[in-house]
Design goal:
It contains six helices and no strands. 75% of the residues lie in helices and 0% in strands.
Amino acid sequence: MAIEKGIDDPVAWHRLGDAYLALEKFDKALDIFFQIEQKSPDNLSLQVKLAQVHLLNNNPDHALAIIDRVLDQKPGWRIAQLWQARILSRQGRFVEAIDIYYRILGENS
């Protein structure tokens, strides 16, 4: 793979991580996204991607912790709020998830 051969192309890294995610190879996707995170620790979109992988890898508690940190840094970010609601739904916390969805919809009305 290009990444393993030392090519330092961020787009290639993201594509590789997304490919592993699409193939449901979550551990490999996490490895790739963690490597990207080392170079861009303040990238909030990447943090949301990490939360997504953790959620799909049946680790909703870790996913929620990541999203909470993202929302601490960027309150009101709808993408992060949507993921927060999805994670809460996965945890069976439906009332909290619905409250977030209503809050998001209210901002768009």
